[in-house]
């Protein structure tokens, strides 16, 4: 028996369907993959429209009748948020592929060690997604506040219709940032549900293990 990705232990038996809790967990990871991919893609697209500069927590300035990103944040801030979303999406994708392979080709069972590893990964993922979502929310609000303070528009969404300098900058920047933030919050909820499911599976395994031990002990007595 060998340990697979995410703590799964494929054996040499035939194909076996995953339990319903794990199938539900699989659906959650599918949704988490989509949310992470959307957040990473939209933020990367927004940063690209600003010529690689990070607009989160940035300060907008007036350049005649046009807007410009006068004081951008460090590019590493956007790289961090996009990287967290992208790496977690990749992790979900790899788990999905492994689960499909295990359930269709080989018998699979997640042991106690694998479940503990999955719990740790889920807890870390929740923390990282929470940090990324907060950066997106407050970073976007800070940028929009600086735009509205210029008294050239009443909202950040309306600022998308105003020309930016250089031309072609900030294409649909607010829509992209809003989509990235929404995807991150949904992703956070999904990871929290995954963690709750995994805790429930761990408790269930402990109960079944203790019951089996007591049954074996009573049967072994003369």
From TrEMBL:
Keyword Coiled coil: no
Cell compartment(s), UniProt: Membrane
Transmembrane in keyword set: yes
One Pfam family linked to the record: Claudin_TMEM179-179B
Keyword field: Membrane, Transmembrane, Transmembrane helix
Taxonomy, superkingdom: Eukaryota
Membrane topology classification: Multi-pass membrane protein
GO cellular component: nuclear speck; nucleolus
Stretches that traverse the bilayer: 26-44, 80-101, 113-138
Family: Belongs to the TMEM179 family.
PANTHER family listed in its UniProt record: TRANSMEMBRANE PROTEIN 179B
Identification of the protein by name: Transmembrane protein 179B
GN (gene name): TMEM179B
């Amino acid at each position: 028996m060998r340990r697979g990705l995410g703590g799964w232990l494929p054996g040499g038996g035939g194909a076996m369907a995953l339990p319903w809790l794990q199938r539900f967990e699989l659906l959650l990871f599918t949704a988490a993959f989509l949310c992470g991919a959307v957040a990473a893609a939209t933020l990367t697209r927004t940063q690209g429209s600003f010529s690689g500069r990070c607009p989160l927590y940035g300060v907008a300035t007036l350049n005649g009748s046009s807007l410009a990103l006068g004081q951008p944040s460090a590019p590493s801030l956007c790289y961090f948020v996009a990287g967290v979303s992208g790496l977690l999406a990749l992790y979900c994708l790899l788990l999905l592929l492994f689960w499909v392979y295990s359930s269709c080709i080989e018998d699979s069972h997640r042991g106690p060690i694998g479940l503990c590893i999955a719990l740790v990964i889920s807890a870390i993922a929740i923390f990282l997604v929470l940090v990324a979502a907060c950066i997106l929310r407050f970073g976007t609000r800070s940028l929009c506040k600086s735009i509205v303070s210029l008294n050239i528009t009443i909202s950040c969404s309306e600022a998308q219709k105003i020309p930016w300098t250089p031309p072609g900058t900030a294409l649909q920047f607010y829509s992209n940032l809003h989509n990235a933030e929404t995807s991150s919050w949904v992703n956070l909820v999904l990871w929290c549900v995954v963690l709750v499911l995994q805790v429930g599976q761990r408790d269930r395994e402990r109960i079944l293990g203790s019951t089996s031990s007591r049954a074996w002990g009573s049967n072994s007595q003369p």
